[in-house]
Fold this protein.
Amino acid sequence: MRINHRMILSLGVAAIMSVAAIGSYADETCNSPYMSGLIKGQEDFVHVWTLGVPGLGDGSDKLVTIDANPASKTYGKVIHKISVGGRGEAHHMGFTDDRKYLWAGGLDDSKIYVFDVGTSPSHPKLVKTIGDLSAKTGYAGPHTYYALPGRMLIGNLSNVADKGGVTGMAVYNNKGDFVAKYDMPTSAIKQIKGDGYGYDIGVNPAKNALLTSSFTGWNNYMRDLGEVVKDPEAMKHFGSTMVMWNLKTMEPEQILAVPGAPLEIRWALPEGQNWAITAAALTSQLWLVKRDARGIWEAKDVAAIGDPAKIPLPVDISITADAKGLWVNTFMDGTTHYFDLTDPEHPRQTYAKHTGSQVNMVSQSWDGRRVYLTSSLLSKWDKTGKENEQFLRAFHWDGHELNLAFEVDFTKEQLGRPHHMKFTANPQRVASLAGVSVH
Amino acid sequence: MRRTGVAAGAVSAVLCLAAAGAASGTEDPGKAAAPRMEFVPPPPGSYKLQKIQPVSDAVLLDSTGYTVSLSALTQGKITLLTFFYTYCIDPLGCPFAHTTLANLRDRVAGDRALAGRVRFVSVSLDPTHDTPAAIASYGQEFTADSKFEWRFVTARRVPELLPMLDDFGQDVSVDLDQNGRATRTLHHMLKMFLIDTHGEVREIYTLAFLQPQVMFNDIKTLALETG
């Protein structure tokens, strides 16, 4: 392996890999700590899971690949796209533990697409479609794809019976075969009742801790946002809990009251840290989940994001590699915020910038020098008219200011609504065992 | 442990470059370290291990040069299987895996309820150089206790090994030199597979999961399934 301006932590060089497996404190970004091959330097490609829009291009959900290497002649350009032949509300993605495959799902049709991004990262290939999630589990709306060794843990949003928010987690092996399901708790644990809702997944291996959050079901996320907020009954059906699970036994051990739909979960994984952070969308609060001296997990709101009275709707978050900083996107006011997390009990906003008429996902490079944003939240929740900007914007971050590096207009390019992003890099002077003879 | 100078140099080069690359970031993620365990593992039998996937059969060579079917090494006993190569020097790679297994062997051997019910299997990733004689030599220090079954196996040729690697999801890549020729530095994500007596993978341990107490409890949990 040769490592020049970029560095990929290559598979199985365990001294290095352990950085990925254990020391992967956080983002590059929001990947499972079990995943190998963290990109610590310059990413080559950004893959964007994109919702199809009727009448725009082929109208299909697609995986769009953008060249992100400034040294490349096609820097900032779309270099590849692969449509999946329909619209299923493309939303999130996740790498397998070996970073060779990218699983991407649809919140509406509950299909899961497996793309090979390891063979040729610049030209991903669709190699498998998993269509039995609902039949095997009764769940719907696969959201989070979290790599476990040899498996994918999938956090869901809904169910097929009433399309509400009661759901669970599914486990598939890396071949795409169903392994197990785990319902989100609906009964009480230590006087706190579970709502059964699901959303994100975060694991802290050293603590055997699996933390989940909660959003809402198909009935709400596939309905016009304006209608949802005007419907008092619909507004009752948002998650208000987080659950701490025993990862080994896959049993829920604690339910934490976190009102307002707690969404993305980021663990602080450096040794000695014992906390995770999330943002509650409806109440616009950062919540800290921390273990106290007795070993009990507690959740407490530690900071407001913007002006909660204006419902800025924090959506995605991205924690820095040292867990001392946090990017937060608020969708409604199109603002990207940076919080100093040096004292996680008292996060301080130190920077904010209007980055679009609507902004949703935020992903930063491992070194924190580049920050990528996309615009789309959900097909029925995005803004309309002139405010319906659909873009990926890449910024340089010098610690003081976000400076635009490039942007891709997904409407002009006839692509759709860009949502989740994942990075890949070209392998450096390695070959598969199948392709060489070892001398 | 047998090491080649070429491999040692290549790995050292990788490690040095890795360190340099890490320093270029604003934050280094920290030194590589053995897995941390900051919890009390659940007791054996208090949980169920998932049935992750069945093991497909393959033909291998044992350390005496005889062919052996993989199914003979993955059924009938609770099996911990891992991949290695004899000249791997990565301190948190194959040597760490085998040290972990050796400690686990001693713990298993001290539990009368597990007597004769557990085996370890180490499969070489490099059939070209890891001949039966090579793996026999390498395995000597781990197989001295004849009461405990620890098998070191290899394959006749790389093409015969590849389907097994694919089945286990064990990715392997090879460093190339400046002329595009393969070196003897192999990269593989360290994985151990816990397999039940029916040949079904029930747990997979990557480096972060190589926690001997948890692994021991998992073995006991499988043993309790069959009484």
Summary: Residues 14-434 of chain A form a domain with the Methylamine Dehydrogenase; Chain H fold (CATH 2.130.10.10). Chain A touches chain B through 71 residues (CB under 8 Å). DSSP finds five helices and 31 strands in chain A. Residues 1-27 of chain A have pLDDT under 50 and may be disordered.
